[in-house]
Automatic annotation (TrEMBL):
It comes from Tengunoibacter tsumagoiensis. Pathway: Pyrimidine metabolism; UMP biosynthesis via salvage pathway; UMP from uracil: step 1/1. Catalyzes the conversion of uracil and 5-phospho-alpha-D-ribose 1-diphosphate (PRPP) to UMP and diphosphate. One of its GO terms (biological process) is UMP salvage. It catalyses: UMP + diphosphate = 5-phospho-alpha-D-ribose 1-diphosphate + uracil. It holds the Pfam family UPRTase. This is Uracil phosphoribosyltransferase. InterPro entries: PRTase-like, PRTase_dom, UPRT, UPRTase/APRTase. Keywords: Allosteric enzyme, Glycosyltransferase, GTP-binding, Nucleotide-binding, Transferase. Its cofactor is Mg(2+). It comes from the Bacteria. One of its GO terms (cellular component) is cytoplasm. Its EC number is 2.4.2.9.
Amino acid sequence: MLEASGESHTKLPMQGIAQPTRAEVLNLPRVHISQHPVMAHKMRLLRDRHTASPEFYQLVKEIGSLLAYEATSSLALREQTIETPLQETKAYRLAGGIGVTPVLRAGLGLAEGFRQVIPDVQVWHLGLRRDERTLQALEYYNRLPHEVDLQVCYAVDPMLATGGSAIDAINVLKRRNIPRLSYIGIIAAPYGLLRLSQAHPDIDIYIAELDEGLNDVGYIVPGLGDAGDRQFGTF
Ligand code: URA
């Protein structure tokens, strides 16, 4: 069974599972929920069922750029001396490489938005699915490099529903000994947010909005529907 990550319409057994409320997860440590009015404006357009795929994809990219801006606000800098046309001066560059890992395929638009903020980011594509029998995460596509020299890597996947694929993606990245990891999503359900934060208390989680919960088939409500299908026009 696949996680409800935009790649499957398999029913998830959410019936009977107690879900936390929004209030219960609002103050989790290391969880950052955007407060930016421009984000709220774009989220209205993104959620609207009448927004067609080309505009939807464009909005995902723009929201990815806004989230990238928020999530990179505490990155380490290195001082260097440069010459302006007038004189020498001290200036700063990002200290160390930055990676972004889109979880296929729904994470692609967010990664693109990320690249618009930091063009030389390394993009590590990752395709995950669950083995039905063992419930282990299987990497069906993995372009993570063998040699890693990054200060931080961001796993990006728009919908944090049950948290399964986000937890698995961070597990994969943790094997690469990257000093700092973060997760970036657009909408989270309290259930997935709590699970991710409990499974990986050492990462920062950035989201645009926190929704009410999950319906019986694991979709976030009110949500926006299937983020993969809406980006790529596959209904
Ligand atoms: N994946 C989606 O694309 N949408 C949801 O609501 C949940 C998971």
